[in-house]
Structure formats: structure tokens, C-alpha cells
Amino acid sequence: MPGIGETLKEIERPKRALVLSGGGARGAYEIGVLKALCEQGVNYDLAFGTSIGGINAAFFAQGKIGRIEELWRTLKATDIFRFPNIEQIRNIIKGSRWGLFDTSPLEELLYREMDLDLFKASATKVGFLTTDLCTLETRLITTDDITTIKELVDTLMASSALPILFPARSLSGEGFWIDGGLVRNTPIQTAINMGAKEIHIVLLEAETDGACPSNILQVLTRCADILLYASARDGIRLVNEYNKLVHSGQFADAEADVHPLIIKVFQPSDRVNTTVLDIDPMRSVRLIEMGYFEAMSLLTLV
Fold it and tell me: Which residues contact 275 (CB under 8 A, 6 or more apart)?
């Protein structure tokens, strides 16, 4: 992979990229932020997402912010996944089932709501990250790679597959693809590689959370949180370190005119108190409103 300095010299860069991180039920916060961005007329050349961030990005690219907000305000956990019964738990133990939860309700929702024509015609190119459990390859799948509604839904399901909790997905009949966010939750490096010079990032966890798990399911979801958030912070650190090099004159002899990357982070100001699986209309409404008002405050600062 080329270094960040080499990337900037070699690629002609579009203006702005949106990066949406993963976090399950906390994805409602992203909807509030997206609503504020749309109201303020902020447009993006590129949008990247993993897990719920990928699904939100797909709706955003189709211009369906109103529709995804409506869904978040009404959806319950059982509208997205089903809890396993005894027989399904036996199948997990025997190895004939690859996820604790049945995610067919989410798949059915995506088939109902996704519009391939709107997705392909969008001025915002979308990229999704997913990782193959077989080869450990992390793949970027963009708007250009997707030609059918099945490919779009399969990609979204793969990018949303949390190991143990949600089943991995085969793509084009190959591999076991899972949430790429466990490797690269907010794909900031990918945005840079594709030419972004201004990056807006939405994180789904407060800087200090302090939540303690009280059961085994919460332990699993908390472990996913740790991986997702650490990956996001690493991406932001990368940008900050690069900007320090620019300001110190390290690229003074570069052939290209090198400028610092502009980065803006939208993030809950306080503990969210919602795990990745706690999809509930009341919680979602609160998160949407939090994301909206916090984003508006940041966007309107002079």
C-alpha cells in the first residue's frame, strides 16, 4: 500500500469524503448527523461505511435520509434479527450455523428499501469494506463494482456481519465475508487513497464511555465496540500525524502542491448507553436528536 505522502502526490483528489463508522444500534446517531449535513447543504464526492455505517451510507447516496430516519424511529431489534431457539443453538455448536442470530429480517428490509438505479446514479460514490475470514483479505467494494440489487444487498449484509453474532456472507459464491470495520472501522486511509482532501467522520461512541458489561452477550458486543473504536481512532491519528509533517515542512520538496488534510469529527458528547444490539425506537429517536443538534452546533460554529 502506498504511503500517505505518496498517495497525495500521485492521485488527483476530489473535494470531500464522508466516513461512517460501525456501531449497530448507535447508527441512529449517524442519521441525525446526516440530516443536519443535508440541511446545511453539505455534499460529498465519496462516502464510505462499515457495518451500520455502510447501510446508512447507501440510504444517504440514494437521497433517502427522510426514509431511513422514518425506519430508525420505528424499528425494533426483532425487525433486524431473530434470537436463536434451542435447535438453532444446537446447529451453531455442530457447525452447521455460522451466527448466533438470524439476520434474514435485515436482508428482507434491504431488498424492500434499496433502489439500485438511485444508488448507481448518485453523485456520491460509495465504498464498503468487508473482510474474508478465509483469507483475511479486506476488500473495498464501490458503487462501480455493484451491478445488481443482489450484489448490493450481499455487500451490505457482508459488511454488517459481526463474527459469532451475525453470520458471514458469501460474495459471488466465495469466501466468508464479515464486517470490515473490525479491521478498519472508519476507512479513513481508503478515503485518502481515493483522493479525499476533506474528510468528515462520524463516530458512534463518546470519547469516554465507562460502560461495564453485565452478561455474556454484552461482553461480546463490548469486545466488538473496542475493536471498532480503536480502529477509528487509529485512522484519525494517521491524519493528524500527516498534518504535523506538512506543517513542519517535510514535503517542501514534493513535486505536487501538498496541503494538510481537513478533518471534522462528529461524535456523541456523552455516553450513549446503548449496545450494538439495543435497537429500540425510543433510544433511536434520542440518538437521532442528539446527532442532529450536536452536528448543527458544530456546523454553525463561526
Answer: 24, 25, 218, 221, 222, 225
Quote the DSSP letter at residue 124: S
pTM for this entry: 0.84
Cell matching residue 299: 456546523
- Of the candidates 18, 17, 36, the one whose C-alpha atom is nearest the C-alpha of residue 202 is 18
Residue 287: name the closest of 87, 56, 100 by CA: 56
Q: Which residues contact 75 (CB under 8 A, 6 or more apart)?
A: 279, 281, 284
Q: Is 131:177 a contact under the CB 8 Å cutoff?
A: yes
Contact (CB, 8 A) for 289 and 281: no
**Element spanning 155, H or E:** helix 149-159
Residue 180 to residue 160: CA distance in whole angstroms: 8
Q: What is the pLDDT of residue 166?
A: 85
Residue of 118 and 12 predicted with greater confidence: 118
- Residue 217 scores a pLDDT above 80: no
- Separation between Cα atoms, residue 167 and residue 165, nearest integer Å: 7
Cell readout for 159 is 459488511
Which tens digit of pLDDT belongs to each residue from 261-284? 888 999 998 877 777 788 999 999
> Beta strands of 72-172 (E only): which ranges?
125-132, 138-142, 169-171
CA nearest neighbour of 196 among 68, 11, 30, 51: 11
In whole angstroms, give the CA distance from residue 130 to residue 169. Answer: 10
Q: Cα–Cα distance between 280 and 72 in angstroms, integer?
A: 8
